[in-house]
Structures are given as C-alpha cells and as structure tokens.
Amino acid sequence: PGQKIVGAGRKGKQLWVELECRPWMSVHLGMTGSFAAVDPKGNIHTAHYVNSKVDASSWPPKFWKFHLEMDDGCRVAFIAVRRFERVKLLHDPPSEPPVSLLGFDPLTSMMPLEGFVGLMRARKGPVKGALLDQSFCAGVGNWIADEVLYQAKVHPETQSCALSDLQIAAVHHNLRYVVTTACAAEAESDGFPKDWLFHYRWTGKKASKTADGKTISFTT
Asked: CA 39, CA 205: separation in Å to the nearest integer?
C-alpha cells in the first residue's frame, strides 16, 4: 500500500510492474489473462477480443486476481478467466525465471534472419511446435502460430529442419508482421486484416472456410 509505480516491462506473456521498493510484481498472462480499468469518470476500459469474457460492469470484476487503486481515482484489475495465469513477487523479474528463460520477443527483440535460420535448422519437430516453444520465441500462442504459418504458406506439421531457406524467411517475415500488426491494433480483433485466418478459425473445430473460400482443416 502507498507504493509508487515507477516503470513497467514485458517480455512475451510476462509483465512486471516496477515499484519504488522491491520486490516487484510479475504477471504471467497465460492463455486468457487480461486487464480492465475504470477511470476517474467511471468509464470502463477493456480489450475487445474474440472469445473474451471480461465483464467489468461490477468492481472488482469477476475472476480478478488483484486490483489496484491509484491516487487519481483510477482502478485497474488483472483478470484470469481460466486460472492459467500467475502473479508473483520477484526481486528483479527480468533476470529471474520465468522471464530469464524466455527466447527472443518478436515485437521488441526480433532475431535477425541469419540466427533464425540457424536455430530452425537445428530443431527437431514441427515448425508450429517451434513457434510455440517459449524458450525459443516468447509470447507466441496458438492463434499467432497458426496465422504466421498461414501467411507464410507453410504447413504447421512440416519439420523445422526440413524447411527451405525461402520457407524459413517467410516464417521469419510473417512472425514479425503478425505480431506488429496485432499490437498496432492494440489486440482489438476488429482491426486485424480481414483476410487473416484469425477471423475464420474460432468455430470449435467445426467446418469453416477462409476469406478466399478454402476449407479450414483442424490438424494441430
């Protein structure tokens, strides 16, 4: 209580809040972690996202893990609908696990193509698995991996070590493209390009088609 927030950081799905005194609060967003805020005028702010179930009409919101009250009257809550999220107190989150164990972040520290090629060549297993491995690439979840590979025209079950140079370059390019585009839209899915697979994949694995009429097959 009474602490001042002096900074914040993020890598992958890990966030941390820097306070005047340690320890600092570290948050793992998991699959559905989200924040809601109420400003001094009572306006509610949440991210509009496919399948999001955040309801901040009451305070604190349902499924909250913690909520903060600011001096100016703002209130902020962290919400964990599926309970896969985590909150920890750490002395220095960037240098401690789990943050220190993460791979590169496609938004803030995208790996150069040469290094990306080398790591892909050395990996065993499907390329989608490589993208989902947080020790390789931090922050990529299921829909991002699918979108990256869809845009790159690479089948998700293709072995990483069997990819051609052109395929690896396409995955590298589209990893950066998908992440930066989604973040530029502030994760508001209505702002994502209309031809993205994202808009047609949320069917509970029922038959669906892409924007250009191709059948979607749920294989991974």
From this structure: 39
Contacts of 83 (CB under 8 A, 6+ apart): none
- Alpha helices by DSSP H, listed for 105-189, are 113-122, 127-132, 142-152, 165-184
Contact at 8 Å (CB) between 160 and 120? yes
Structure-derived torsion over alpha carbons of residues 215, 180, 133, 15, reported in degrees to the nearest 10 = -130
Q: Is 155 buried (19+), middle (13-18) or exposed (0-12) by CB count in 10 A?
A: middle
CB atoms within 10 A of CB 67: 17
**0.70 exceeded by the pTM?**
yes
Q: What is the DSSP code (8-state) at residue 88?
A: E
From the list 199, 206, 213, the residue with the least C-alpha distance to 146 is 199
Residues 139-194 have pLDDT tens digits of 999 999 999 999 999 999 999 999 999 999 999 999 999 999 999 998 888 899 99
Between 165-184 and 142-152, two packed helices, what is the crossing angle to 10 degrees?
130
Nearest-angstrom CA–CA distance, 15 and 7 = 11
